[in-house]
Amino acid sequence: MKIKNIMLTGVAASMIALSSCKDNETNDWLSQAPIPPIPPYENETVDLNKVKAVSIDSEANFEYLASKSAIDRELMRMKEYGFNTIYLDVKPGSGRALYKSDILDYCNSYGNIIVQRDYDDYLGYFIEKGKELGIDIIATIFTCGWAINYENGIQEGFLYDNLDEWRNEIQVRNDIGSDRLVSDLEETKITPVYLSPASTKFQQFIVNVISELVSNYPDLKGINLDYLRYGESDKGWYGLGDVDLEAYARYWNEPKPDPQEIIECRTGAPGPKFPQWVEYRSATVKMVTEKIQKAVKAINPDCEIQMWASSHWPSRYGNGQNWASTNYIPQGYPYTENYNQTGCAELLDTFVSGAYTTQVWEYENPANEWCIETFCRQWPEYIMGACKCVVAIPAYAFMDDPDKMADAAYLCLRYSDGFRAFELSYMNQGNLWEAAVKGFKRYENPNDTSGDDELDY
Hints:
The protein is an alpha/beta fold. The chain is built from 14 helices and 21 strands. An eight-stranded parallel beta barrel has the order 3-4-7-13-18-19-20-21, surrounded by four helices. A three-stranded antiparallel sheet has the order 9-8-12. Strands 1-2 form a two-stranded antiparallel sheet. A hairpin with a 5-residue loop joins strand 8 (145-149) and strand 9 (155-156). The chain starts with 6 loop residues before the first strand and ends in a 13-residue tail after the last helix.
């Protein structure tokens, strides 16, 4: 079986294909999986050039990828299985660089783990090897995370090395049950320490960091802005430090608010200014995105700007992330009349939609909106054609159920511009490579009933 460009010719052809699959028991990987409803349009084009990506977390693979041979082995594996893109974590939450930088220190350690590499440039070697194999590299930046506060007491990273300079720029939340405000430095359950996107000092710093990266690595396919947002905690809401309250006052042209007007700290209930604060935080994240986008495009217009966020748009106001188009106008509390203007989609080339849930198909639990199929279908409602969308799924959720991994890959390719698996170590631990390919083939060859699962990539 060879991969071909295919045009489905409406409902009749689709139903023939489904019937053939059900009659052919040898093609079990296709026949056993549920088939979603036929889309409400007559023709469906199969695109063989969609993104098929794996992300590589720096900490999870820190020791393993310390050698060229390990990197070579993984890129060859990705090529063999038809993957064409890597989302490479190059500025993790520690605030240190896995690339050559005159601004940031090089990342040679995580906690007690120190590595000795047989190469001098992590990102540079990935780009070099990727070019040989035709694999695009997208550099992922943990945008607001600049130190790591481990539960075991180890504290390391950029902020701990420069704490006097940056202490006042760190995100602050309320402490439900008291009037106390809590710096992110005090969190123990959430490892990264976040800088506030409202800080003009931070804004210039992150623009400088990303500008250097794009200038030094012109062969990058794109920059993925990961965790460009306000933090999250079950104990309260972030964005209540002086740097944010003063920025809020400038945004609304009114006096600096008391935190109690935003969040009633003792109860955690929203205060009278909560909707205005929600708009302010999303507008702040958009402002940072726009500054980065302008700087990157001035250096390399072909370098894509991407952003990762949770697929569940209705909850994103909690982190200040409105990834929708400005043409999407939400209704109801806590959205203000102009909240839609905080949408970021027009600034992006690609939105990376984090469908991080264990439920794949809507039929499994129709009442649960946290579902990969739902997220794959819903994103156009919010983005409204403003940018592309790649759906990212959690490989760790399917390590014991590869059939669901295949289903997830199929859904991502069918209903979005690409598929991304998080992440490499889980793909290897769960041996999920063939499962992903089954999903690829199911999307690309819907009429094939040969039962031939041989790789033709």
